[in-house]
Structures are given as structure tokens and as C-alpha cells.
UniProtKB/TrEMBL annotation:
It comes from the Bacteria. Keywords: FAD, Flavoprotein. It comes from Labrys neptuniae. Pfam families: FAD-oxidase_C, FAD_binding_4. This is FAD-binding oxidoreductase. Belongs to the FAD-binding oxidoreductase/transferase type 4 family.
Length: 465
């Protein structure tokens, strides 16, 4: 065994092949890799030692959180040269400061656990996504995750006050401030947020907290079409003001997929429509949220934006409504390999984008089954495509690539993006590089060179090498 592997072996590598499996693949199971070693450091100093050793020997390193990323960024490469650094054992809450509306936590903390900790102190950490029971805050920061509450609280980058990270030469950068305002020079932490493991390993973060809502109103509404959903969104912003926290569009195929995944999931409405909206408003303090919601729904009905609807009477009913949105993702996964996209367009163009893409897809691939849903308030649509039921496995990759091209081809007209929240990783690299302007490419490459001159951090993600 060469000496470097002897050195790495002191960081408790995973050697059992069954145990190793989960570090070599990701949630969608589309990508599978091999690793030179899988290490699980317990402290930031151990992370730094590993990176120093790898930097000295020019061994590539890939950080891993909860393996829920959807663009194959955390999966090691197929050639088995990369060292996987799992952050799962760096999972301590370092501090919670309710008076400062902040908490400082290690990168391996599971997102759902952070919700619980904040809640125990009458605070809210608002980042919420379907994978919250498995994804880690370090992974959320590395991917600048979005999720369900972006319209009110912003993406992960709006929620981070400070960062501690191990840089690609093994130095520890302590940028763990918990200041709500700090205007001193370049905001370096913002470069690490969304860098997908290419500029360093996030080991801890200070997070911004909010008052814990004491009232929540959740409604599931049938609308005639996406244009009606967008009009309804405008009305909700007006009537519910900044208390609106989620506004999701779901097509009827999405509801069917959720019921496929969870057969006892009841359709909440008598009326069947092509599109539905799942919305939530929340408040703390003396606001009468229920009355606000009632008034909003009355004006929405009067304006003809809503065909039918129901408002959850308690948290169990609200949970059942949210399961439709959450379980439709599982329903798609059960149908096997499919196209996942994560595009964004201006909110005002959502209906036009969907109409254009539906028509183009129907013409190019008449047997494709589109499943479009997403976060209306962010202009972020998951325009996914299922192959026809009996398509041979071997034919799916080319078919889905063709469908992806159709979806992406509709974006330039609306100055849209191929990735609203999932990032680039390896899965979207080609399309991302194609869309980069020369000056953007030069600056991006310059930042990478500055942080990681040896190119050891997550090669092949965001950059070709
Ligand atoms: C069911 C489901 C629903 C989802 N919903 C959403 C959603 O609504 N919005 C959304 O934005 N995403 C969503 N995702 C995608 C995913 O959950 C997020 O991208 C999440 O932030 C990834 O976190 P993770 O800990 O699983 O990271 P991983 O998958 O382990 O890693 C993701 C990337 O981050 C890097 N990385 C991980 N940890 C670190 C670290 N500590 N330092 C540096 N780099 C690191 C990895 O190298 C990799 O490139 C969903 C995924 C699933 C499976």
C-alpha cells in the first residue's frame, strides 16, 4: 500500500462493500462511482488533515452530505481515483442564540433536525425541502438549496450568516460570524455557497433564524390552467402580504403519481382539474391569519381564479395536503428512469413557457408523459418527463436526452435558467458550459484557480476538469 493510503487509513475508512454502497451512489441511483477511500472525519481539524494529505499528493477529493443531490455532484468518479469525505460525523449544534435569531451548526447536521432545534427555542429555520430528513446543511449550503419557502425567506444563500470551511490546500477558514449586517469588503462566504464542493469543504455554518409561526393556513385549490395560478399568486401576494410562504403548482398527473406512491392518499377535492395550487401562509403574533385567508379565498373565487378548494382544518389535514406535493416525487421515482429538470423563467412567463414546451414536446415525442410542477413564486418549474410505460430500458437515455433538449430549447426566449436550485454537478455540465458567456467563463475559472490551483476539489463538476 503506498504511504498516502496508510495515512488516510487512520480516518476510519469505510471498507465493508455493503456499507460502502451508499457512498458510491446517490438518491436517484442514476450515477454510480468508485472511491480510492471513503473517510468520515469527526472534527474540522481531521477534515483539514485529510485535505492537506490529498493536496500534497494531488489526489482528488469529493465532499459528501446526505446523498440527496440530484445532479450527480457528490458521487465519486467511475475511475476510483477520488477520496470521498463524508461530513456525517460533524453533526453538532455549536450554539443557538435565540436573541440574535441565529444558530451555529456543523455541516453534517440533518436539515430536519435543525428545524426541531430551532423550534425548541421558539424560532424557525425556514429552509424546507422533500429531502429534509436526509440532506445535510453542508450539502444545502454547497448546492444553495431552494425548496418550498423561497418566496418568503430566500434561497440558502439568504439564510447563511457565516461559514467555516477547509480550503483546497488544507487551511481552515473561520468565517463563522453571526452578524446580520457586515459590509466589510468582498463577501467571500457567498462564493462557497452554491460552489458544489469545488472550492472547499464547508464544515460549519451560522444560520439566520426567524420567529416560529404560531398560525399556519394551508389550502389546496383547483385552477383552470397555469395562467390562472399565476393570477392567483398575484392576488395572494396582495391579500396575504408577506405572510405567504409557499405557492406550489401541481398538474393532475402529479396528483396521480402521488396516489400511486401512497395509495391511501385521498384526492382532497370533488372537482377534477388539469392544475392545482397548494399554498401556505404563516404568521406569529396578533395577526388574524385565518380571517386574512378567508378574505383572500373569497376574492379569488369572485375573480374566477379558483374552481374549487379546501383549507386544512388542522395540522394533520395540512400534512395530508403536503403529502401530495412530496409523494409525487416518489411516484416519479417508482416509474423508473425519467427526466428531471429544474428550470426557471420570470413568474410572468410561466404560463407561456409551459404552453410552448408542452406543444414542442407533443410534436417531438408524442408518447412522452410530461409532469410539470413547481414553485410559482420563484418562477421555478420541474418540467419532468416520464417515458412511455413499455419503453425498453436501453432506449430511455437517448429518449430522455431528446426530451431535455426540447425543454431547454424553450428557455432562451424567456431568458430562463437550466438550473433554478439543484445546481450543475456533472449531470448538467454540458448545457451549463454552452450557456456561459466568455466573460462569465473567464471569471468563474479565475475564482476556481484562486481557491484550488491544483484542481483537487470535485473535478468534473461545474468545470470540465
Ligand atoms: C426528494 C427530494 C426532494 C428535493 N427537493 C429539493 C428542493 O425542493 N430544492 C432543492 O434545492 N433541492 C432539492 N433536492 C435536492 C437536494 O436535496 C439538495 O440539493 C440538497 O441540498 C443536497 O444536500 P445533501 O446533503 O444531500 O448533499 P449531497 O447530495 O451529499 O451533495 C450535494 C453536492 O454538495 C457537495 N457537498 C455536500 N456536502 C458538502 C460540504 N459539507 N462542503 C462542500 N460541498 C459539499 C457534494 O460534493 C455535491 O456536489 C431534493 C432532493 C430529493 C431527493
Amino acid at each position: 500500500m503506498p504511504p498516502i493510503d496508510d495515512h488516510l487509513a487512520i480516518f476510519d475508512p469505510v471498507t465493508d462493500p455493503d456499507q460502502a454502497e451508499r457512498y458510491l451512489t446517490d438518491w436517484p441511483r442514476d450515477a454510480k462511482g468508485r472511491a480510492r477511500a471513503i473517510l468520515r472525519p469527526r472534527t474540522v481539524e481531521e477534515v483539514a488533515q485529510i485535505v492537506r494529505l490529498c493536496a500534497a499528493a494531488a489526489i482528488p477529493v469529493v465532499p459528501q452530505g446526505g446523498h440527496t443531490g440530484l445532479v450527480a455532484g457528490g458521487v465519486p468518479s467511475a475511475d476510483g481515483t477520488e477520496v470521498v469525505v463524508s461530513l456525517e460525523r460533524l453533526n453538532h449544534i455549536r450554539e443557538i442564540d435565540p436573541a440574535n435569531f441565529s444558530m451555529t451548526v456543523e455541516a453534517g447536521c440533518i436539515l430536519a433536525n435543525l428545524h426541531d432545534v430551532a423550534s425548541e427555542h421558539e424560532r424557525l429555520f425556514p429552509l424546507a425541502l422533500g429531502a429534509q430528513g436526509s440532506c445535510q446543511i453542508g450539502g444545502n449550503v454547497a448546492t444553495n438549496a431552494g425548496g418550498l419557502n423561497v418566496l418568503r425567506y430566500g434561497m440558502t444563500r439568504n439564510l447563511v450568516l457565516g461559514i467555516e470551511a477547509v480550503l483546497p490546500d488544507g487551511q481552515i477558514w473561520n468565517g463563522l460570524r453571526k452578524l446580520h449586517k457586515n459590509n466589510t469588503g468582498y463577501d467571500l462566504k457567498q462564493l462557497l455557497i452554491g460552489s458544489e464542493g469545488t472550492l472547499g469543504i464547508v464544515t460549519a455554518v451560522s444560520l439566520r433564524l426567524f420567529p416560529k409561526p404560531t398560525q399556519v393556513e394551508t389550502a389546496f385549490l383547483a385552477v383552470e390552467n397555469p395562467a390562472a395560478a399565476v393570477a392567483l399568486y398575484g392576488l395572494a401576494r396582495r391579500d396575504l402580504s408577506d405572510l405567504l410562504s409557499a405557492f406550489e403548482l401541481i398538474g393532475h398527473v402529479g396528483v396521480e403519481l402521488a396516489q400511486e406512491a401512497t395509495p391511501d392518499l385521498r384526492h382532497p377535492l370533488e372537482t377534477r382539474s388539469s392544475h392545482y395550487v397548494l399554498m401556505e401562509a404563516s404568521a406569529s403574533g396578533l395577526v388574524d391569519l385565518s380571517a386574512l385567508m378567508q378574505r383572500f379565498l373569497e376574492s379569488a373565487m369572485e375573480a374566477g381564479h379558483v374552481l374549487d378548494g379546501t383549507v386544512a382544518a388542522n395540522s394533520a389535514q395540512a400534512g395530508a395536503l403536503w403529502r401530495i406535493r412530496e409523494d409525487l416525487v416518489e411516484g416519479q421515482a417508482r416509474r423508473g428512469r425519467h427526466l428531471r429538470t429544474d428550470v426557471s423563467v420570470p413568474i410572468s412567463d410561466i404560463a407561456a413557457f409551459l404552453a410552448k414546451t408542452d406543444a414542442a414536446l407533443a410534436q417531438a415525442e408524442p408518447n412522452a408523459i410530461p409532469v410539470a410542477y413547481g414553485h410559482v413564486g420563484d418562477g421555478n418549474l420541474h418540467y419532468n418527463v416520464l417515458p412511455p410505460p413499455h419503453m425498453a430500458e436501453g432506449d430511455k437515455p437517448a429518449f430522455l436526452k431528446q426530451c431535455e433538449q426540447v425543454v431547454y430549447a424553450a428557455l432562451p426566449e424567456f431568458a430562463g435558467s437550466i438550473s433554478a436550485e439543484h445546481g450543475i454537478g456533472r449531470a448538467k455540465l454540458g448545457s451549463y458550459l454552452k450557456g456561459l458567456a466568455p466573460e462569465e467563463k473567464a471569471l468563474t475559472e479565475g475564482v476556481k484557480r484562486l481557491f484550488d490551483p491544483k484542481g483537487i476539489m470535485s473535478p468534473g463538476r461545474l468545470f470540465e476538469v
